[in-house]
## 1
Amino acid sequence: MIDFSSTLPGLVAESPDDPVRSGRLPVGVLLDHLQVGLVVLDEAGHVVGVNHQAREMLELPLTLLQSQPPIDDVVRWQVERGDLRGDVSHILQRVWHHLRETARRGQPHVYTYTTAGGRTLQGTTIAIPGGGWVRAYVDVTRHAQMVRYLRDSEERFRSLTELSADWYWEWDAEGRYTRLEGRLIREYETAEMFLGKCAWDVPALNRPRPEDWAPLREAFAERRVFRRVELQRRLRDGRVVWFSISGMPVYDADGRFTGYRGVGRDITRRKEDEATIQRLAFYDSLTGLFNRRAFVDRLQQAQAASARSGEWAALCFIDLDNFKDINDAYGHAAGDRLLQTVAQRLRDVVRIEDTIGRLGGDEFVVLLEDLHADEEQAAWRAQHVAEKVRAAVETALTIEGHEVQATPSIGITLFRGRDEAVEDILRRADLAMYHSKSAGRNAVRFFDPAMQAAVVARATLQRDLRHALRDGELRLFGQPVVDARAQVVGQEALLRWQHPLRGMVSPADFIPVAEQSGLILPMGQWVLRQACAQLAAWARAGGERAQWSLAVNLSPRQLRQPDFVDTVQAAWREAGADPRRLKLELTESLLLHDIEDTITKMEALAAQGIQFALDDFGTGYSSLAYLKRLPLAQLKIDRSFVRDLLEDPNDAAIARTILQLAKSLEMEVVAEGVETAAQFEALREMGCHLFQGYHFGRPAAL
Ligand SMILES: Nc1nc2c(ncn2[C@@H]2O[C@@H]3COP(=O)(O)O[C@H]4[C@@H](O)[C@H](n5cnc6c(=O)[nH]c(N)nc65)O[C@@H]4COP(=O)(O)O[C@H]3[C@H]2O)c(=O)[nH]1
């Protein structure tokens, strides 16, 4: 063994308290217990000291060291054993170069190498001020293994992302993309699209609204793992692809949240396959309409929706009367074309929200929802649509050079709620369709006979009403409007229909039919002309009647006519009536449509001197803001409030409020439906100035 203590003058501390110097701890023992291997070279490069650790790390035999060999011999020995690889002279050259350089510059030289035994050592050469060197060795085998392991792992990860269709991503603590790796990301050239941005800042076709991103943002805010978030995106080249991303939060060694990492995947193929499956499973391949399965499903949903809304829905069953004949005569291809044409015509005539299906063969079905809360009204609307369908299907078409005409037989049934089985609804509509077949085909029939009767009655009424106008069966009645002294100051014109068989028909029965059929327009014009003629006649007659006003009810449809202002002007001009005596009564429902257009028209007429009254006030939706903007001269308190005025404090309060409101808006108020002296008195006390009702006079021929 070499005596270390005597060979290390420069390495031993100078302090008098030093346990080594003081002799309390032998230097050799101390150095042998270090975790660092030490090799000491004298100024000539002889190995003059080696501690226990160095011998073990470098695996140098004692026999080699005992003679204090030159470093060159040790290096040669190491090359022979395979510790150092390469040409000996070249290695020696390098060794001496480093030794000299450390001495010259006074800086340690650090290097790493792996022994034949597989140890990785980090050596540090330090020059001793008095001459010679110390080489210190630290075993870094484990660290080197770790580095190698990490490098391998990184390479494995890279080959994975290169080879697979998935990619890897990282977000920072703000949710911004900081890293995107993978072949597809490069191919799609999407990295620039994302880097520095949050996922929710890059547009996705399937999530157009900010709230669509709420679940992902919440998961992020709550540091939750999220899986398979599907995003449809448009690439730079215009291609539309589907991505799916999954991610998990990442924390640093101190448990601080640093962001997210995860994988992305292209799921476009899967999405396309799903869409195809969906199409095959739910749509009829010939026409693109819903197939039976999907339609039944919709029908169930419609039942649930109608139960919630209280609105009636209808199922129309459509069967082509002569499909078989056309098929037999012109072949299947022609038959298919016909079915496709019928499907298209159905699409053209029903609303976008209605559901159309083909149950098979030439059987089509149409589902109409939200028709009306009133069954009869709903039936009427369903009938209206079915008639449109019938007319559309019936239109002739040319198939392969032949003109063919397919007529439909249509059955309708109404339903609301989900108390009955879907199959029962279908059966009812099917049965109704057979009724229309037996009624001579190319017809529409209801399943319910009462409904059928009601619809027929209404259709008859509509037809008769058309004749009424032509044949002069309409009459204009008037009901007096009085002031607080019960003096007549004007009249309200009310329409009557003198039916040749039914007698006098109430407007409550025929106005809705006229509204729906559009007949209200010529009828309204007739009323206007009559009213103006009446005003002119009163003026001519002189006396107090010359001062009377005449109020005419307007349908919202009339006011929506683009030429409405001109029509009214023509009416009073042609009759020679004073427009200041003409009052036009509107209902609040009018305010639901294009309010700006209404105001413009009203102002144009008001400029001619015509006055406007708001009818049935209090029963509708009037917004006070609109009320202020409309050029109104009068509010009419609806008769439902007047009726119970004396018994119901709420009604009295409403009447009083309307009066106060009108006063502040500088409008007159007419109380409608005054039937008793007590009501008259009460209203007068509240400050009402104008009255109308049976108490003063029933409507009578003008
Ligand atoms: N219970 C009760 N009722 C009273 C009393 N005083 C008057 N009435 C009735 O109340 C209705 C007042 O007309 P409205 O509210 O404008 O309601 C009118 C109006 O909305 C509409 N209408 C009538 N004529 C026309 C018209 O020429 N054009 C348009 N578009 N609608 C009209 O038909 C509705 C019903 O008219 P009518 O049957 O004539 O019914 C009239 C009238 O007869 C009363 O003291 N007690």
Note: Confidence is low (pLDDT under 50) at residues 1-15.
## 2
Amino acid sequence: MIHVENLSVTYGDLRALDDVSVDIDDGEFVTVVGPSGCGKTTLLRTIGGLETPTTGSVSVDGDPPAVAQSDARLGFVFQDHTLLPWKTAVENVTFLRRMAGKDPDPDGARDLLATTGLDGFEDTRPAELSGGMKQRVAIARAIHLGADVLLMDEPFGELDEITRDEMGVEILRLWRENRKTVVFVTHSVPEAVFLGDRCLVVSGASAGGAGRIVGEFDIDLPRPRDESVFGSEAFGTQVTRVRSALHDDA
Ligand SMILES: Nc1ncnc2c1ncn2[C@@H]1O[C@H](COP(=O)(O)OP(=O)(O)OP(=O)(O)O)[C@@H](O)[C@H]1O
């Protein structure tokens, strides 16, 4: 379980997050949506041990995030996929396990790449892969690491809308099969609703710029979800609820 309690983070004079508290259960898919600059990345990075709380605390299964990170319990997927350009897809996927002192398991990496739609591209370098393919490699790398928690920051932000929708369906399938805890940051309300069990709305407008959780929504759309969900009335209703929380605070 991820436990965030009264978390505030400041950068110099700038308060990026103010008094944020949230608990995230094992295996839960939580999305974080909000306007640019409201502190979403700061929240994710603090859960990942890449930023330190100014006040308050964060723990992952009772440990400080830095400990969870060094035990390879946290996997990161960022917008800029951060693949190593000189390594092939399969070498990129095995790299983090190698770094963590685990068996790199290239056969497992190949299987995972095949299930993410990269059959035939295992030995291709990133420069020859499309944006969506690179993100698939980055997701496969985080899953292959064996991390219990995936921290995803706008991973589909650079992709065209159709690929983005496809990737959403793909990440839900991988999540079903691997049962990770996922914290997924996005600017897109429909994406947040489509993916999440729960959607946290972060906004800073009414708090003098510091990000706070201004809404929290259980997304009770049935699973498994695919593209057909986008046209459903229930989906539209959820999107409207989340949007109003954002606009009420603007
Ligand atoms: N390392 C840093 N040093 C100083 N200020 C920072 C740093 N990182 C973030 N900030 C500031 O903190 C605030 C929150 O930034 P953050 O990146 O967390 O927001 P965000 O909601 O993820 O934005 P976006 O959606 O545009 O990525 C912003 O005002 C940003 O300029």
Note: Helices lie at 40-47, 65-70, 89-99, 106-115, 131-144, 161-178, 189-195, 233-249.
